[in-house]
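Technical note accompanying the year-one report. For the benefit of new consortium partners, we illustrate the data format agreed upon in the data management plan: each record pairs a sequence with a structure-token string. No post-processing was applied to the example shown here.
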Amino acid sequence: MAEVSAALGVSTHSLYAWLKQFKKPVEVSAAEEEVKRLQAELRKVTEEREEIFDYIEVFYNRKRRHSFTNGMSPVDFEN
């Protein structure tokens, strides 16, 4: 931006002010709202994935012996 303002012979501040007047506030705020919504969705999905992982780890319990594996834990059975 500094190179452009120097080439035009104006200050960087003036160039930013000039560019700012062409942004539509409605479009910017709509885009910002969409980004916030997507970030919230990502947090929600991440939390849900962690909850499901924790549930599976507790429910399945890799160390517990299973009758299907002749009393071996699932980890020992696979190795």
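Partners are asked to follow this layout when depositing records. Residues 25-60 form the longest helix (36 residues).
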